[in-house]
Amino acid sequence: MRKIFNIYQLVGHLSTFFDRMMTAADLPARLALKIFWGLDADAYQKFLTQAFAGIPQNFSGRLLEVPVGTGVLSLPVYRELDGADIFCLDYSNKMLDAAKERADQMNMRGVKFLQGDVADLPFADHFFDVVLSVNGFHVFPDKISAWAETYRVLRRGGIFCGCMYVKGENRRTDIFVNQFCDRQGFFSPPHETLASLEKILSDRYTRVEITNVESFAGFVCIK
Ligand SMILES: C[S@@+](CC[C@H](N)C(=O)[O-])C[C@H]1O[C@@H](n2cnc3c(N)ncnc32)[C@H](O)[C@@H]1O
């Protein structure tokens, strides 16, 4: 946990670099997305769409996002959800600082930001209508608690959705994840495959839909 914390504190300091990468903002970012993640421009758009596919149109309930990171992907989505009550949680206060600054710049004062651990969420049972996790589960060190906690805080009939890296879909990505992301502490193995993810989700949720773009699995589940 300390290793993950330290690395994302550093990423938080270098958040503009992280944000350029996550948004395919320039040529080096687009090249890296293609080489390491197999995502060309079309595939990147599909990745984005699948990441947020589970949020209902004009959603106006209570939503938890964990982890929010710098909010670079999700805050533009929340800007369109006027009536929603949005809570964003991350373990790294540096990542959160970057997210808060972005929300201020976007004039989004209603979004709440909390520092915390997905393995021990500071919310009552069944509190949320939607729980969203974008690029979180391949990072979380204690995945068993993370699956349990995201389930616990969701109401019956609520939606658990998002996306994560899965192994076995792109050989080059798997080598990159294994040799770089895991070793440097950006990600936490063991990683799921599409099949093992489907099993984890189906064991808990009543309805599960999984899609994938290269090594990114998108999931939309109903509790
Ligand atoms: C790859 S970033 C993803 C951020 C964002 N969702 C995105 O896609 O841009 C992973 C984030 O997970 C956070 N994180 C790692 N372990 C965590 C934990 N146990 N609880 C909450 N957040 C955690 C890190 O601080 C980091 O901000």
Structure report:
Helix 1 (2-13) crosses helix 2 (15-22) and helix 1 (2-13) runs parallel beside helix 6. This protein has 223 residues and is an alpha/beta fold. The model has no long low-confidence stretch (mean pLDDT 94). The two termini are 28 Å apart. A seven-stranded mixed beta sheet has the order 3-2-1-4-5-7-6, sandwiched between helices. The protein has one domain (2-222): Vaccinia Virus protein VP39 (Rossmann fold, 3-Layer(aba) Sandwich), CATH 3.40.50. Helices cover 42% and strands 21% of the residues. The structure holds S-adenosylmethionine. Residues 4, 8, 22, 66-69, 72-73, 90-92, 95, 117-119, 134-136, 139-140 line the site of S-adenosylmethionine.
How is this structure best summarized?
With 223 residues, the chain is an alpha/beta fold. The protein has nine helices and seven strands.
List the helices and strands and how they pair.
Elements: H1 2-13, H2 15-22, H3 27-37, H4 41-51, E1 62-65, H5 75-78, E2 85-90, H6 93-105, E3 112-115, E4 128-134, H7 143-152, E5 154-165, H8 171-184, H9 194-204, E6 207-213, E7 216-222
Helix pairs in contact: 1-2, 1-6
Bound molecules: S-adenosylmethionine (SAM).
- Total discrete domains: 1
Element-by-element helix/strand order: HHHHEHEHEEHEHHEE
Bound compounds: S-adenosylmethionine
Low-confidence stretches: none
CATH H-level superfamily: Vaccinia Virus protein VP39
Q: Look at the helices and sheets and give the structural class.
A: alpha/beta
Which second-level CATH architecture applies? Answer: 3-Layer(aba) Sandwich
Biggest sheet architecture: 7 strands, mixed
Strand content: 15-25%
> What is the CATH top level name?
Alpha Beta
Shape assignment:
globular
Q: Report the C-alpha radius of gyration, rounded.
A: 16 Å
- SS summary, helix count: 9
Strand order of the largest sheet: 3-2-1-4-5-7-6
Mean pLDDT: 94
| Share in helix | 40-55%
CATH topology: Rossmann fold
The strand count comes to: 7
Termini distance?
Answer: 28 Å
